[in-house]
Amino acid sequence: MSKKNFEKLSKAQQDAIIKAGKDAEAYYEAKAPAIDDESIKAFKDHQVEVVTLNDAQFKTWLDLAKKTSYAQYAKDVPNGQKLLDEALAVQ
Question: In total, how many domains does the chain have?
């Protein structure tokens, strides 16, 4: 929903939308581990090695990606750096 349309709603409607969003987020966050496990199983069933990174390993990987593939993506894709920045801003 656009901010413009959201702001046209009454306070009660805005509150209902926000609550529904928070409820949906909680629901899907609770489902995420099972979906992750299903995805990992599918890869392993096809003899793909799956590696889980700890925080330090992920940071090392991310630093390398920023210098290599992300840099190439930013160069090759229109608005690529903006897209990368937006994706990396998600926590």
Answer: 2
